[in-house]
Amino acid sequence: MPMGLVEIPELDPWTLTRALTHRSGVKEHADSYEELEQIGDAVLELFAVLLIHGYSLLPPISKRAHRQTRD
Q1: Nearest Cα to 45, choosing from 1, 21, 4, 9?
Q2: So which domain of life are we looking at (predicted)?
């Protein structure tokens, strides 16, 4: 694999979305331990990509949202 590329395992995007957005967490939505492990790996790899490439990949925060986080 060329330098700088991160291999992200194949995972159904809907599974990841359900797991990350459901208020009760991942456990109710994972069909198996292997799927739960894949979700965890995918989330960790996404965070690693953000850390390696910096936060410049994230959308800019609005001034209003920034003021709300400071209060």
Answers
A1: 9
A2: Eukaryota
Would you say 9 and 41 are in contact if contact means Cβ atoms under 8 Å apart?
Answer: yes
Cα–Cα distances in angstroms (integers) from residue 56 to residues 20, 24, 53, 67, in the given order: 22, 31, 7, 20
- Using a cut of 0.90, tell me whether the model's pTM lies above it: no
In a domain, 19, yes or no: yes
- The verdict on residue 20 lying in a domain is yes
Question: Strand, coil or helix: what is 6?
Answer: coil
> Tokens 């292997």, residue?
34
Overall number of domains in the chain = 1
Q: Crossing angle of helices 13-21/33-53, nearest 10°? A: 90
What pLDDT digit, counting tens, does each position of 39-69 carry? 788 777 777 777 776 666 555 655 555 555 5
Domain span including residue 45: 13-70
